[in-house]
Amino acid sequence: KAGVTQTPRYLIKTRGQQVTLSCSPISGHRSVSWYQQTPGQGLQFLFEYFSETQRNKGNFPGRFSGRQFSNSRSEMNVSTLELGDSALYLCASSFFPSTDTQYFGPGTRLTVL
Amino acid sequence: KNEVEQSPQNLTAQEGEFITINCSYSVGISALHWLQQHPGGGIVSLFMLSSGKKKHGRLIATINIQEKHSSLHITASHPRDSAVYICAARSNFGNEKLTFGTGTRLTIIP
Questions:
Q1: Cα distance between residue A22 and residue B59, in whole Å
Q2: Measured between CA atoms, how close is A109 to chain B, in angstroms?
Q3: Residue A39, preceding peptide bond in cis (omega within 30° of 0)
Q4: 8 Å CB contact between B39 and B87
Q5: In chain B, which ranges are continuous DSSP H helix?
Q6: A and B: number of Cβ contacts within 8 A
Q7: Residue closest to A102 by CA, chosen among B29, B98, B68, B59
Q8: Rounded Cα gap, residues A26 and A88, in angstroms
């Protein structure tokens, strides 16, 4: 069974631009969570989706948004990029939210110049 | 004070040694996760536990709900165990979000 895939793997943007990251969960998984990892803050929870609905959201500004499609694939969008948004963005999928083991994708490394 | 604290931050040991990594949390939780992250970023979920003890190969995870403490043990450590180990607490109220510890960087010397 294929694992969680994330595209693109690497991305370079400039301040003020916007970016869309994509996550394809393991087949059959309906829950997708997104995380940001930086050297200073470590791993932080962004949001969690289940069956196309956002269940939970972390403490990030409204510039960070996401959605989940009917095939469980998910996208996250960051608008008006700031230098501090440079990070590794990870998504993880599971059958059900909260109570299930999560399987992580390889991440998208975003660099904002 | 962070809601999830890990210790030690860095740990270097000789191959074959018994390793213990500790995680303390201050919030009520429904589950505690242990993750392994190798250089390059890939994260693997090792354990999810809400009580007692779980074992997988040379890895053992325990949790004491009353003391709000969990430990990850590695027996007969091997250089391939070198990685960052992260604990994460799943809150049992509100948005049930995962809060992560800062990680323990483990280096096993042959």
A1: 33
A2: 9
A3: no
A4: no
A5: none
A6: 52
A7: B98
A8: 20
